[in-house]
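User: My advisor asked me to double-check a structure prediction for Helix-turn-helix transcriptional regulator before group meeting. I don't want to rely on an old file, so could you generate it fresh from this sequence?
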Amino acid sequence: MLAPDSLQRWHQALARAMAACHGPHFAEALVDALASLVPVESVMINLERIGGAPSLLYERGIPAENRELLLQRYFSRGYLLDPFCLAVAQGLPEGFYSLGEIAPDDFFSSQYYKTYYLGAGSVEDCYFMLRLNQQERVSLSLYNGLSATPFAPGQLDLLRNTAPLVLELGRQHWHNAGAGVQQQTPDFEQQLREAFMSFGEGKLTARELEVCHLLLRGHSAKSSARCLGIAAETVRMHRKNLYTKLQIGSQAELFSLFIEWLSKGAS
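Assistant: Sure, here is a fresh prediction for Helix-turn-helix transcriptional regulator from the sequence you gave:
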């Protein structure tokens, strides 16, 4: 339960966010209100599109040395393996989520996590996800990492309790967010999808390709086995075979090879 002074700060910041709705400073005021409840290191607010790349609506707190990784590499291709983007594409209902609730079982050991989270100065994040329409969502991501204390369970619960209010305010402000954002051409998106689906084509079997994608997304052998309806030992055999065919020896090499493949597909 919030102390009276903390509750007062929240109400004051919330009132400023409500007053800023429909204006150019709404995102900043809303983040200020959330930061009055829970310390937040950095923030990204994105317009998510089913079947397309996300677009940045607002960010703050991202260190300069991490901007290229997050704002260029992520939005051009890295998002294709992001567990939140994948969950949205699979019909994730609007609400509040922590990364641990969405990510596959071995995600925190994956090369993607090491590159796009630890490599960008973040150990975890959480999301408010707002559904605008059938094709578009707005995600408000709060990050904590190497220079801040990770979110405690009580802090996550506190943020989760604000979700109905945050989502309604966001709905009023961003209801037409997609109208002012330049849409990517179908050819670009098609190139990305084809690059993703044809990675290893001609070298890997269809099953090896399925295993490859699950491993890249952060699934363990057991989780991959459940997804595919096969034994974990069979997954390990496919993993060994695809490593041999691609002439690599680790998930880090697989990840680098895949990102390079996406870069060629997107060029």
